[in-house]
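Work package 3, deliverable 3.1, input record:
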Amino acid sequence: MIFWTVAFAVILVLDIRDFIQGKDSLLKLIFNLAIILFVGWANIYYNLHDLKHIGKYDPDADDEHDEFISQKTNHQVLKIIENLFLFGGFIPIIAGIKVTNDTLSAVLIFIGIFMELMWWIIMILKTIVYLINYKKY
Amino acid sequence: MKNLVKELRKQNHLTQRELAEKTKVTERTIISIEQGKYKPSIVLAYKLAQIFNTDIETLFCLKEYLKNEEEN
């Protein structure tokens, strides 16, 4: 699985490089991206089934352990997204301040602020949902 | 979480699949419990204790678990 993830990442970087250098059109880049995403998703899905398929067990049937894994996964993904927005948002802001081109600077700062805003929205949503769940249970 | 599931399963000549079928969970769940990676729900713990004719406290070494918790 790690091999395929690295392979897809390399193909993606090469595609983007070709697009930036003007060798590929935007349409071809989008088409390649769609193929990579589909094959990547299929690869992950196959690996998950392969991992879960032991004996006669139906990989589509979920039990309490699967629910636990699912909840843990959601929690971890949310944490990754939170950190991505919080810390990743600083990169375009800093880049925007350093860049001399006004338009590019404005776009970068806007992207950075948008990412920080998304982090705040997630924080607010988490607090609201936490309060509701605290009252509910 | 340390437990005696594997030992008792072998004593009762049960495979992981058979135990999974008896408790209506997946084999992956039994494997994770035996490895101590997953803490089962109270209902599943009770089902396992019933199959092995023991109690949850013994099956999941709860006295030892609480003792370790107090020490840490």
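Chain B has a mean pLDDT of 94.
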